Amino acid sequence: MNRRTMILGGVALVGLGGWAVSRQMGPSSTQITPLAGAANAQTSNADVDTSGVQDMVMGDADAPVTIIEYASYTCPHCANFHNEVFKKLKADYIDTGKVKFVYREVFFDRFGLWASMVARCGGPEKFFGIADLIYKGQSEWTRAGEPAAIVEELRKIGRLAGLNNETLDECLQDASSAETLVAWYEQNAKDDDITSTPSFIIDGKKQSNMAYDDMKKIIDAALES
Fold it and tell me: Which residue in 18, 148, 161, 189 has the fewest CB atoms around it within 10 Å?
């Protein structure tokens, strides 16, 4: 499967395809830089069927405004958004039926991919709760040390959410799922021109990370249009 091949051996995952992270930490986002030759790697997306990857959605399916967030579990700006801003967005717009919120993962590294596989392991019902725990504990699990230690910290989060070890092992060792998720991410990033995280597609228009008051203005304008 070319560079899409995900090799999961216990706790080791090798190869993430055609993208890498450039840790150029701007004031509010983490930049994504395509590897040399990544354009060639994109052609192999046709070899991977991503139709089974489910968008994780919160809110009324018929809400007048849709927000798609692109974020990475290893991005500190994404953690800040989810720990500080998202609760306001949820209370003001998602829970009130004004916004349908879609979360899409960006993979900078294998650790973010593992986190995604744990978050998705409990299905849509548990996804946002597990994602919340992953972001809250980001500074701990990302600094646990060796890959095995990082995986064990993520497994602890999964167990805290009610997943058992057998289920977590099955999810984390699913190389086909890992490969599919990366191909899905790459196609999404290409289609929506995602170059940093967090990024937002609000009412069809791409937006960079911003203060909540600025986001409110964009949402309110979309609701009035």
Answer: 148
* Angle subtended at Cα 71 by Cα 68 and Cα 75, rounded to the nearest 5 degrees: 160
With a CB cutoff of 8 Å and minimum separation 6, the contacts of 18 are: 3, 34, 35, 37, 38, 39, 40, 41, 42, 186
Q: Could you read off the pLDDT of 80-89 as tens digits, one per residue?
A: 999 999 999 9
**What is the three-class DSSP state of 42?**
helix
Domain ranges of the chain: 2-224
Tens digits of residue pLDDT in 197-224: 999 999 999 999 999 999 999 999 999 9
| Domain spanning 2-224: CATH 3.40.30.10 | yes
